[in-house]
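User: Hey, my collaborator sent me this sequence without any context and asked if I could get a structure. I don't really work with proteins. Can you help?
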Amino acid sequence: TRLGSWAALEYLRQTMGWDGIGQLISDLGEVCRDGSCENEEVSDQALVAALGMDQEALNTSWSDYWLETLDNVQQNIDTNLTQRTQAVLEEDLSSFLDTVDPATPNLLKEEEDWFAANALYPLESFRLSAKPISLLEDGSVVASMTMEYQLADIPGYRGRGSIPVDVLFTADEGRLLWAGPVFETIEEGLVRVRFPEGSEEQASILLEKAAAYYSDLALALGLDDRQIVTINLYDNKPVYEGFISLSHDGPDWDPGWSTSGHSVKLFSSGELEDDFILVRHLSRNLLSQMGVQGEWLLNGGSMVLAGDAAGDILENRAAASLISLNN
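Assistant: No problem. I've predicted the 3D structure and written it out in structure-token form, which is a compact way to encode the shape of the chain:
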């Protein structure tokens, strides 16, 4: 099969390198030029001469290699997720953060705050499970994961969830570290947009707008030494909400999240309807960089700054925000 051919070739690359594969192809090519490609005995002799094994032994060897490799990967994933699960249930922040890749932009702070937010609500149950679906060249692993939970003090559908999501684990000295949902990345200037596969066009439009707004807003605020801002774009609402906190229930009019030290999170199942949400959360990010901490100042200031981009919808959004706060 095509998969079997790839698995065998990748096994040979791992064990022989490209130079060794090149020599093997050359040796087998000689056999074919002699018209003996269909002669299994002659082909096996060529394989034995090149590899020290015939076709049957090669099939067994690459199959055993991949079974062992995938078993080791699964064990490393399970080790990480078991530690994360126990840390959540036992409220052990240090152990929880030990599972996180510190090189992923803003992730360590986001995970710390996710942990703190979830600690506000007792958990009846919490479970993480995952299977590897892709092994990357640098040792990282993409896995299909499910996060299941039940909050004790929140009844009904809001208190429970089962969230499937593809996540990335990065390699670190023989173990795997949690790197969050799988994103692709594009950058322009001081703006970085991370987005799921299939959202390339939307992410490109978002990056162009964000780069312009971020520069204009910084100029308006007199902020010369602004930091790189990372925007995480989500196309799945349960994933977007679940990675803010298990109890997150934001207003429908504002499918965005931003707080100090975090990436800006935006949810959109299609093209963003207008620029209000984007500008509002870029504004919050810049105000946080300036040292503004009060939520009423962050909300009010970002609303005012977003008004220039949002035009006549500002009044309706501001009213919706006040209603949300009042409730």
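In plain terms: The beta strands are 123-135, 141-151, 160-172, 175-181, 184-188, 191-195, 229-234, 256-257, 264-267. You can pass these tokens on to your collaborator as they are.
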